[in-house]
Structures are given as structure tokens and as C-alpha cells.
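Morning run. Coffee first, then this:
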Amino acid sequence: MDQNQEYVLLTVLPAVLTPLLIGLAVGLGIARWRWTLLAYALIALTLYLFSAVVFYIVNVTMFNVRLGLAGPGLPDASTMEAITHWQQYSVLAAIYSVRFGIVSAFLALAITGRARQWSWFTILLLAAVVSAIAVQFALDLRGIGIFITDGRRALEIFSSPLYTIVVNALAMLTLVAQILYATLAARTTAATAPKASTASMPDDPTLP
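And here it is:
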């Protein structure tokens, strides 16, 4: 991947993708928001899982090399090139996952707010905040570096399976919450919202 391709895939397309996803949701209409939310959240979750797995396999391997846990020497040129490509794929998947996740979180909050499902609104909002913080610790060593200044110790913790599982589970929390809402609770929104709007209309005998 050359610099032009990297710029287009990592910067231009993600910037365009967000308004396109919002426009698609609006075009499909409020009645289909539940299914749009479910589709966006599932796509985001799939992309994030791919990114997290590749990131762990590739980057932890390189961290182990830096820590001297993988034996003497460095991987050969072809291996390093393959690692670089997979790192790029991991970053791409993470960026597009975030774009889908942001729009799906907005849809979830809009649906719950419109239906006055404030318990779900609070749960989804808190889950989004927690995941936004956790993803920084899951995919960037600088996150844990805030609390652990010893570089070697930070790398050891960052590359541990337990740390990886916990932070990535928290990073995916918002997507799991959105999927649960779309499958369990949002199905009643379309039916209840029109009733609420009808009940709120004034009893004006001049209205047709």
C-alpha cells in the first residue's frame, strides 16, 4: 500500500463514510432504524473483532521481539513486509469499525430518546463512553503508558492475554449493547411511538 492509497483508505474514505451512513439511515426511514442499527452494529463488531485479533497476533509478536522474548535476531524482510500489511489491515478495520459504531450509537440513542426509553438511553450512553475510552487502551500502548511509565513493564502488560481480553471486551461493550437493544427492545418502539404522538395531539374539534 503506497502513500496515496493509504491516504485515501485511512483518511478520505472514512471521512466520507460517516455522512453516507447517516444519509442511508435517514433515507431508509425511521420505521427501518431498528434494522439499520442492527446491521451497522453487527458490521462494526465484525470489523473490530478482526482488527483486535490481527492486532494481537501481529503487534504482540513484534512487542515480544522488542522485549527479547522471541529469541535473538529480527524477522526476515518478507516476514516484516507481511507484518506491515497485516498491521495496515488491522488499522483499516479499526477505523471503519469506529465509523460504523459512531453512527449506530447515534441511531440507538435517537431511537431510545424518541421512544422515551430512558433506561436504555442511559445504558447505551454509558456503554458508548466506556467503549470510547477502552478502545484507546486496546489499540494504543500510550493508553496504559499513562499509568505505567516503565516501558518494558507496559509492553508486558499490553501483550498479556488477560489485558487484551478485558480491554477489548470493554471496547466492544457499546456494540453488544446496541445489538441487544435492537433485538430485544427496539421492536416495540415503532408500535409505541405513534400512539404516544397521537395521545399528545390536542382535542380540537376543528381538526379534520
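Residues 190-208 have pLDDT under 50 and may be disordered. Good start to the day.
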